[in-house]
Specification:
Layout (H helix, E strand, L loop, with lengths): L7 H20 L7 E2 L1 H8 L3 H13 L3 E4 L3 E4 L4 H25 L2 H18 L14 H20 L2 H13 L6 H4 L3 H19 L3 H28 L1
Antiparallel strand pairs: 1-3, 2-3
Helix pairs in contact: 1-3, 2-3, 4-6, 4-7, 4-9, 4-10, 5-6, 5-9, 9-10
Length: about 240
């Protein structure tokens, strides 16, 4: 290993830091314009400065932050246009995953798919004639777990490893669960998100490959648009 290479352990740590920092930036926990300091992040996450430096370098390459020598990194965030463009790419990739899954999914995977959106419905959606329920304190985590479970089983059922790699690459720039910031406190958007999941699940269950692809593409674009508008509202505030 050359002196310029990052050790594998540090790379793994830096990947996790990238994911967490992206999540915080996109959710608004770390506001646009904030400074990320190497020493502060190293202390918070209990790591050395090496994975922190590598994580900020990755975020800098994605233009999520701007690296300033001897000061750290200033948060840029993604613009609405960035979100829409990444969403368009992700929609095509995940649409293909849904199409493939509709032709290959097995009974065990179908049960996991149903369980994911049913959990979401039970915890987040009111009956048609009732007011929206109070969201649990850890609503963001529960939503993320249900959303991850849903999309992950479809990708698994697609059986295409190269597609999984491509989706993971886009996911490093647009984390799958970052849209929750736009949905939180908005029962209309939460219901719309769930109905989109159900349409995908129905198409996959019925083996309708064309409808599965179309439903997934529409869902990803809808999520990206909700997030882009939320980002634009935050930036204009």
């Amino acid at each position: 290993m050359s002196e310029n290479e990052t050790p594998p352990a540090a790379t793994s740590l830096s990947d996790r830091l990238v994911d967490e920092l992206q999540r915080r930036i996109f959710s608004g926990e770390i506001p646009v314009g904030s400074w990320l300091r190497h020493e502060t992040l190293a202390q918070e996450f209990g790591v050395s400065r090496t994975p922190v430096r590598e994580a900020l370098r990755v975020l800098g390459a994605q233009d999520v932050v701007t690296i300033v020598q001897n000061r750290g990194a200033r948060v840029n965030g993604h613009s609405g246009r960035d979100i829409r463009e990444l969403g368009a790419v992700r929609a095509e990739l995940e649409g293909l995953a849904a199409e493939l899954a509709a032709g290959h999914i097995d009974d065990r995977q179908l049960e996991r798919l149903k369980s994911a959106w049913q959990h979401y419905e039970d915890h987040f959606l009111p009956a048609d004639d009732q007011a929206a329920p109070a969201l649990p304190e850890d609503a963001g985590r529960q939503w993320a777990e249900a959303n991850d479970a849903f999309h992950s089983v479809i990708l698994e059922a697609s059986g295409n490893r190269q597609l999984a790699i491509s989706i993971a690459d886009v996911g490093r720039r647009l984390p799958r669960n970052s849209a929750y910031a736009a949905y939180a406190g908005n029962s209309r958007l939460l219901r719309k998100n769930h109905l989109e999941h159900k349409a995908i699940a129905d198409a996959v269950t019925q083996g309708d490959v064309r409808r599965a692809r179309t439903a997934m593409r529409q869902h990803i674009r809808s999520s990206a648009e909700a997030m882009a508008r939320w980002i634009e509202d935050q930036q204009g505030a």
